[in-house]
Structures are given as structure tokens and as C-alpha cells.
Specification:
The complex is a heterodimer.
Chain A: E1 3-7, E2 10-13, E3 18-25, E4 33-39, E5 45-51, E6 57-59, E7 67-72, E8 77-82, E9 91-99, E10 101-105, E11 109-114
Parallel strand pairs in A: 2-11
Antiparallel strand pairs in A: 1-3, 3-8, 4-5, 4-9, 5-6, 7-8, 9-10, 9-11
Chain B: E1 4-7, E2 10-13, E3 19-25, E4 33-38, E5 45-49, E6 53-54, E7 62-67, E8 70-75, E9 84-90, E10 102-106
Parallel strand pairs in B: 2-10
Antiparallel strand pairs in B: 1-3, 3-8, 4-5, 4-9, 5-6, 7-8, 9-10
Classes of the chains: A mainly beta, B mainly beta.
Chain lengths: 115, 107
């Protein structure tokens, strides 16, 4: 059974850093395209970043230069390192497997950035 | 970057009504278009991929069509459990942009 479990969310001050982890089971992270998607309170879905199976990474303009997506193949885990956090980064962050669109989502990790 | 738009932003329809939501891409994306349903407080759920392929387990009242820049999601007979926000997403190449969403309510 495919599962994605995010950890690492919490309350952080503006300018601070946080790392989200997404532990995958039931499939191999390195063989799949993996993404982070976020949703601010009461707002729509916003794509944040993707790491393709080949290792290429891409970011939304809103987080470019501040966020880094990576994976640990030995731990079958996806990460999102978030630096220089801003109030507008407050959101639920979802880990997602991208096949034809996102076919599996994690339960989400809440990140709250206080100013 | 390719922009995704959706119309309408919200709609209210009666049970049994046919409902159509439109998603437009600012440039052609072939059929690399997915539709999601998100119920309040829940994780999004993939309904359709490849613009028209129904994800396993999704009721057949949902259908998708389109290619290039214009796509539609149709609910053939709206049910109370279909109250949700619906999003389209391009997945041809990064950025994997979502549309702004369409909120569907029961009249």
C-alpha cells in the first residue's frame, strides 16, 4: 500500500528555517517524480517544487532561492528545506507522488510562520 | 510560464443537474491535464488524468475532455457528496501549475 507521511511542520518565526520530511512506503521515491504542494488557509492549491526521477529539480517563483527539495534514497524519504521563511509561507504542505498528475498525497504538515 | 485559469470560480446547482467546469491553459499542454476534487478539510483526490482518463474508483458521472488549451470537467448528475472544490493542474513540465479552483455547492 502506498503511503506518504509528512513530519517537521510547526510554528516558526519569520526569517527562520524548517525542514519537512516525507517518508514513503509501498514504492521507491527515487524511481518516481515527487512534488511538494501547499495550501494556505482558505486558499487554493499551490505547486511548490518537484524533483524528477532523474534528479532534476524545479521551484515555484515564490520559493526559488529559499526552498530546496531533495531525497534520501536509502531512507526512501523526500525533503523540503525551507529557509528565510515569510508569513506568506504559512500553509499546509503536502508531499505528493506525480505519475499522471498527483496520484498519492500525504496527509499534510502545517507550517505557521509568525511575524 | 503557462498560466491556468478556471471558470466559473463557484457554482450552485441542484441535485441531478449536469455541471461543467472549464479550465484553460495560456499555451498548449496537449492532454497533460489532471482534475482533482477537494472536500472541506480533506486531502485532494485525483479524479481524471490525461484530460479524459478516469482514475480508478472514481464514479462514472465524472468525465473530462479537451486538449491543447481548453479542457472541461463534467459531472453528469450532481450528487450531494460532490460538494467540493475542483482544481485542474498541468503536468506536462514544471511548473506544475494548478488552476485557482471552482467551488461547487448544492442549491
Amino acid at each position: 500500500e502506498v503511503q506518504l507521511v509528512e513530519t517537521g511542520g510547526g510554528l516558526i518565526q519569520s526569517g527562520g528555517s524548517l525542514r519537512l520530511s516525507c517518508a514513503a512506503s509501498g514504492f521507491t521515491v527515487s524511481s518516481n517524480h515527487m512534488s511538494w504542494v501547499r495550501q494556505s488557509p482558505g486558499k487554493g492549491l499551490e505547486w511548490v517544487s518537484v524533483i524528477y526521477s532523474g534528479g532534476s529539480t524545479y521551484y515555484a517563483d515564490s520559493v526559488k532561492g529559499r526552498f530546496t527539495i531533495s531525497r534520501d534514497n536509502s531512507k526512501n524519504t523526500l525533503y523540503l528545506q525551507m529557509n528565510s521563511l515569510r508569513a506568506e509561507d504559512t500553509a499546509v504542505y503536502y508531499c505528493a507522488r506525480v505519475v499522471y498528475g498527483v496520484d498519492y498525497w500525504g496527509q499534510g504538515a502545517l507550517v505557521t510562520v509568525s511575524s | 510560464d503557462i498560466q491556468m485559469t478556471q471558470s466559473p470560480s463557484s457554482l450552485s446547482a441542484s441535485v441531478g443537474d449536469r455541471v461543467t467546469i472549464t479550465c484553460r491553459a495560456s499555451q498548449g499542454i496537449s492532454n497533460y491535464l489532471a482534475w482533482y476534487q477537494q472536500k472541506p478539510g480533506k486531502v485532494p483526490k485525483l479524479l481524471i488524468y490525461g484530460a479524459s482518463t478516469l482514475q480508478s474508483g472514481v464514479p462514472s458521472r465524472f468525465s473530462g475532455s479537451g486538449s491543447g488549451t481548453e479542457f472541461t470537467l463534467t459531472i453528469s448528475s450532481l450528487q450531494p457528496e460532490d460538494v467540493a472544490t475542483y482544481y485542474c493542474q498541468k503536468y506536462d513540465s514544471a511548473p506544475l501549475t494548478f488552476g485557482p479552483g471552482t467551488k461547487v455547492d448544492i442549491k
